[in-house]
Structure to design on (609 residues):
């Protein structure tokens, strides 16, 4: 696939999302507000009940920073995951047209997916700036310009990994009519096991250590820890990125036979 | 350009009896049946040819086109398009092929057609200047210049179909599959699309395979047809030859100087002098239309002329559509020409 086509797809998807979706901003604001409000009350209550100053190494303000960041970053990582675009196109025959084009389907879809997260990214930056302007940054949160810049490669890897994790699940649409529930399952499993619902440091040590070997950490916890300045050493940063990329390779390898076998039985229904 | 040899496609489909009990049972045990959509299709389409692929609903037309377009894999047999196996989907082939589906939008619903065309330019890697000139020319030919910047989903069916045609032909394909390109369109739009296809053929001489349920599409565009029945090609030959080979009857129309006398007890049977020869299709006043077996046309004409005072007499071939319909629906097999 040519670089020109990739850029074209990214640009087109980004502009489509911003031009035609009036609900785009409303959804984003509602999502952020509900997250902030729910977490604030929930964790306020937990801290008050336990009487602890810190939980899992986080005091209340830093924990809120972590949870808000994970929410903002998570939207960029997932994009429009629950739309299950690939599965839908397999199901309704929309895949057929891509078989006619002299291009590869999955890179094509990833370029579209990537384009769709650019408005999300812009929102993330804007909302983060507004929140910082309103409330400031807590003393314990090590967010700096450098840490934010270092987050960008982690975010790219996370986005690619999440797309690749969802692809084999979406390939199930070659054999089953409705795979939406698999998308929901991936979202919740990744949120819980990737440290997006609560930091992994709040899990028992053995569980946290095990979860760090799974791909979901690279989707949420790793980029957030980079953003919060928890990962400063080049070695640790490169190791985290390498783990994420390694999982990208593994999931791509798992997708390959599924995709090959699935398209052999593809019937192109709907035409 | 398109060569097909014993191409087959069998689908495995799940079967379920109606009712809740059967639905629960199907969760554990599912019965599968094999459906032969295409059986041993053999034919070729040459450069500059528009070949009509005709068959009843479910006869296997679209399945055949999908295999040749590389969308689905066959169960057996072989096919090459421009020397490539279509379902291997080489980019070299895909750059030279187009599929237009009247029943399925291929353009991006939320984008204006002009944006879709720009994306297709990058997909097919058409030089920018060539692409712009081509869009302008094709849009002018189809009269849709003013709609280029309207979202596809806001276009009328006819306008959308015209945009689909432009999109499919922007890269000047050498092989074009047209799957019911005029379905649901008004007569003006149908005519515009037919003229456009003929113009494209004149300029580019592609191999074209056209499926349509409209006989006018077939008669206007195709010199040669393939008739497919229950997945089997039962006729491959010229459109004209269909009538010569398969029309078993002719229609004799006689305008009489006085009213014909029909047998009193059998008003729908042949009038005096023609009993046992033909079947009356119409008998109103002085007009008589009789369906007569081909080998008895001369005899019937002689008898009419002998028995009545005839002002005018015409012998017509039956409609091509009727003849093809008879081939499509006949239970007999065979008769397919190579």
């Amino acid at each position: 696939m040519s670089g020109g086509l990739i850029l074209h797809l990214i640009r087109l998807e980004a502009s489509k999302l911003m031009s035609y979706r009036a609900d785009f901003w409303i959804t984003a604001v509602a999502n952020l507000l509900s997250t902030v409000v729910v977490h604030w009350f929930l964790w306020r209550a937990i801290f008050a009940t336990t009487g602890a100053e810190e939980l899992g190494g986080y005091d209340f303000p830093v924990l809120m920073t972590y949870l808000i960041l994970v929410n903002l970053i998570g939207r960029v990582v997932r994009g429009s995951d629950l739309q299950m675009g690939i599965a839908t196109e397999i199901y309704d025959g929309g895949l057929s047209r891509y078989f006619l084009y002299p291009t590869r389907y999955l890179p094509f879809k990833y370029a579209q997916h990537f384009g769709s997260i650019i408005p999300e990214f812009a929102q993330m930056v804007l909302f983060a700036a507004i929140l910082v302007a309103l409330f400031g940054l807590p003393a314990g949160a090590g967010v700096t310009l450098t840490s934010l810049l270092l987050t960008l490669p982690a975010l790219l890897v996370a986005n690619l990994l999440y797309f690749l994790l969802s692809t084999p699940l979406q390939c199930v649409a070659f054999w089953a009519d409705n795979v939406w529930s698999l998308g929901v399952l991936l979202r919740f499993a990744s949120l819980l096991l990737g440290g997006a619902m609560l930091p992994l440091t709040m899990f028992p040590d053995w569980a946290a250590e095990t979860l760090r070997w799974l791909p979901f950490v690279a989707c949420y916890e790793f980029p957030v820890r980079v953003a919060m300045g928890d990962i400063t050493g080049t070695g640790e940063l490169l190791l985290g990125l390498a783990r994420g990329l390694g999982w990208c390779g593994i999931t791509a390898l798992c997708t390959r036979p599924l995709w090959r076998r699935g398209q052999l039985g593809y019937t192109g229904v709907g035409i | 350009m398109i060569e097909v040899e014993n191409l087959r496609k069998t689908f495995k489909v799940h079967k379920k009896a109606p009712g809740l009990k059967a639905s629960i049972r199907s969760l554990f045990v599912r019965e599968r049946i094999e459906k032969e959509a295409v059986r041993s299709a053999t034919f070729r389409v040459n450069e500059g040819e528009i070949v009509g692929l005709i068959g009843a609903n479910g006869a296997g037309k679209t399945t055949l086109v999908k295999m040749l377009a590389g969308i689905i894999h066959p169960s057996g047999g072989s096919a090459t398009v421009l020397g490539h196996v279509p379902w291997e989907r080489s980019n070299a082939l895909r750059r030279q092929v187009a599929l237009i589906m009247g029943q399925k939008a291929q353009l991006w619903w939320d984008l204006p057609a002009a944006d879709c065309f720009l994306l297709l330019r990058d997909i097919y890697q058409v030089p920018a200047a060539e692409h712009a000139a081509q869009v302008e020319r094709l849009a002018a030919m189809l009269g849709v210049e003013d709609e280029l910047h309207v979202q596809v989903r806001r276009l009328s069916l006819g306008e959308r179909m015209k945009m689909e045609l432009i999109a499919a032909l922007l890269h000047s394909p050498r092989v074009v599959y047209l799957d019911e390109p005029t379905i649901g369109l008004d007569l003006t739009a149908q005519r515009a699309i037919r003229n456009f296809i003929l113009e494209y053929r004149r300029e580019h001489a592609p191999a074209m395979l056209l499926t349509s349920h409209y006989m006018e599409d077939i008669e206007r565009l195709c010199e040669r047809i393939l008739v497919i029945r229950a997945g089997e090609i039962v006729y491959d030959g010229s459109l004209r030859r269909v009538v010569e080979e398969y029309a078993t009857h002719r229609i004799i129309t006689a305008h009489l100087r006085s009213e014909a006398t029909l047998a009193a007890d059998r008003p729908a049977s042949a009038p005096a002098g023609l009993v046992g020869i033909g079947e009356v299709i119409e008998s109103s006043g002085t007009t008589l239309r009789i369906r007569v077996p081909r080998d008895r046309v001369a005899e019937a004409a002689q008898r009419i002329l002998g028995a009545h005072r005839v002002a005018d007499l015409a012998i017509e071939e039956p409609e091509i559509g009727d003849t093809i319909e008879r081939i499509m629906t006949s239970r007999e097999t065979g008769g397919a020409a190579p």
Notes: The domain at 2-243 of chain B is CATH 3.40.50.300 (Rossmann fold). Chain B touches chain A through 29 residues (CB under 8 Å). The first strand of chain B starts at residue 2 and ends at 15. Chain B has eleven helices and 13 strands.
